[in-house]
Every structure is written in C-alpha cells, then in structure tokens.
Amino acid sequence: MTQTREAFEARLRQIGTERYHDRHPFHHRLHGGDCTPDEVRAWVINRYQYQHCIPLKDAAFMSRVEDPDLRRAWRSRIEDHDGTDTNEGGIRRWLRLADAVGLDRDYVASRQGVLPATRFAVEAYVRYVRDKSLLEAVAASLTELFAPKIHAGRIEGLLKHYDFADDSALSYFRNRLTEAPKDVAFGLDWVLGHADTAEKQDAAANALIFKTEVLWAQLDALWGAYVEGRIPPGAWQPGEGLASPKAA
Ligand SMILES: O=C(O)c1cc(C(=O)O)c2c(n1)C(=O)C(=O)c1cc(C(=O)O)[nH]c1-2
C-alpha cells in the first residue's frame, strides 16, 4: 500500500537511524581521538576517492535529466565540489586536510593506493546513478539528510583530539554544514513528491539502503586494512605519499 508522505519520510529517516555510517566503529574511533596518525591518513586518502567521484555521479545524473528546472536545481552540487571563480570548492578543501595530516596532495589526488573495496563501492554508486531510475538516483543522495550531524560531530571530535585539526584543515566539513541542507531539502521534497506508488516508495527506500551500504563498505575496508593490519596488495602503506617537510 502506498504510504502517506509523512509515513514514507519517517521510513526513510528510520533507514538512516539504523544504517547510516555514523554508527560505524571506525567513525567512533576517529571522532573519539583513538585513531593513529596513519589511520587518519588512510581515511583521508580513501575518502578522497568518494570526493573525486561525487561530481562524476552528479554529472552522470544531470546527463539524464531532461527537465531544465531539475538540472538547474542540481548543478550547484557540482560547483560545490569543483569550485567556481569565487568558491574554492570541496575537492580543494579536502586537499587542505591532506596537507594538514602530512600527506602529499598530489599523491592523494592521484588516488593511487586507494583500497580496492573503496574503489568498487564508490564506482558502484556512480554506476547506480547512471543506470537506475531518476527517482532511485535522487533517493540514493538522501544519506545527506544524516550528514550534517556527523560533520558537526567530526569537527568537534577532531578539534578536540588531534593537533593537526584547525579551521583550515576542517574547512571542508564546515562548508558542507551549509551546502548539504539545501541539497537535501530539495532532494527529499522531490523524492516525496515523485514516489507516489508503493512500488516507487520501495524502490526509493531500497536506493537509500544501497547508499548506506556504499558508505559502510568503505569503512569496513578501512578497518580491515589499517586497524587490523590486512593491507591489500597495492594499497597505501604507511610512510608512502608523505609531503616533503617544506610542503607540510
Ligand atoms: O562525511 C560524511 O559522512 C558524508 C556523507 C555523505 C553521504 O551521506 O553520502 C556525503 C558527504 N559526507 C559529503 O561531504 C558530500 O559532499 C556528499 C555528497 C553526497 C551525495 O550522495 O551526493 N553524499 C555526501
């Protein structure tokens, strides 16, 4: 049976409560100050793969949208990450974080050493958005409903526990605090308006679940490799990719 708008929204939010990656032990370790410097570096390197692919995902989405009003609403997402003449953009802000933790930003941007599971998970998200319905593609982005809370907690936890953390290093997250809510308000309204049958509601809910799995899988990979020490062949090894002292 088709759910009311309110009940369907509650169902989507419940998925976040149960499955969002704020519950992952790696995040607890990171935000609680328990990560070693190399674990933080591994997170910065691997998460860059996500940053790299988000604009590809949004461009793939826009290439399929025939409604100019929807493209107009969506295109700021690409600018938020890639930047404009007046906005540095999220990708460069992420590289400031790379600098702060002592990594060579060219190494990070090269995406050499990214864990295989991270690569596969992030590529699966780009493909999903390319191949599934527009409704599923927009619904998959709704994990951002839950992101401001984790970004705020991360800013607080990193500032409290790590010497590298300062306003410049964490500027990526501070910017997302204002960028994400506008995107997600639009995306949520769009999904609630377009998921007007039980089948579409199920498809949208499953898209959101899929996306929580994309996020969770990346942190599982990080934990296995760098907390438990099973680094896959070819992945970043501590000591690699460091900035020269002058640049650090
Ligand atoms: O740090 C995080 O936990 C987190 C999560 C997510 C997310 O939920 O997908 C995004 C971001 N950050 C983020 O910074 C971001 O720009 C972003 C874009 C998207 C998306 O699906 O389009 N998710 C996320």
Automatic annotation (TrEMBL):
Residues 10-220 form the Thiaminase-2/PQQC domain. Keywords: Oxidoreductase, PQQ biosynthesis. The keyword Oxidoreductase applies. The keyword Oxidoreductase applies. It catalyses: 6-(2-amino-2-carboxyethyl)-7,8-dioxo-1,2,3,4,7,8-hexahydroquinoline-2,4-dicarboxylate + 3 O2 = pyrroloquinoline quinone + 2 H2O2 + 2 H2O + H(+). Pathway: Cofactor biosynthesis; pyrroloquinoline quinone biosynthesis. GO terms for molecular function: pyrroloquinoline-quinone synthase activity. Its EC number is 1.3.3.11. One of its GO terms (biological process) is pyrroloquinoline quinone biosynthetic process. NCBIfam families: PQQ_syn_pqqC. Belongs to the PqqC family. Ring cyclization and eight-electron oxidation of 3a-(2-amino-2-carboxyethyl)-4,5-dioxo-4,5,6,7,8,9-hexahydroquinoline-7,9-dicarboxylic-acid to PQQ. This is Pyrroloquinoline-quinone synthase. The gene is pqqC.
